[in-house]
Amino acid sequence: MSYIELYGLIRCGSFHQGRSILKGLSNEIRSYTEGMLEADWELFQQKKYNKVDPDLEVLCYLDNILIGGIIELSQLAIEKYKYIENTSQSVFTSEAESSYIQKISNPSKKYVLWHIKIGESPEKKIVIELDVQNCPRTCENFWQLSNGFKDLNYSGSIIHRIIQDGYIEGGFINTASGKSHSSIYGEFFADENYSYLHDKPGVIGMSKFGRNENGSLFYIALRPLLHLNGRMVAFGRVVEGMDVIKTISTLPHANQRPITNVVITKSQDYLSILMPTAHESRPKSHKDQGSSKLENADLETLIARREAIVKEIESTRQELEQQKILRNMISELIAEMTA
Question: What residue stretches are annotated with the PPIase cyclophilin-type domain (predicted)?
Answer without folding.
Answer: 113-269
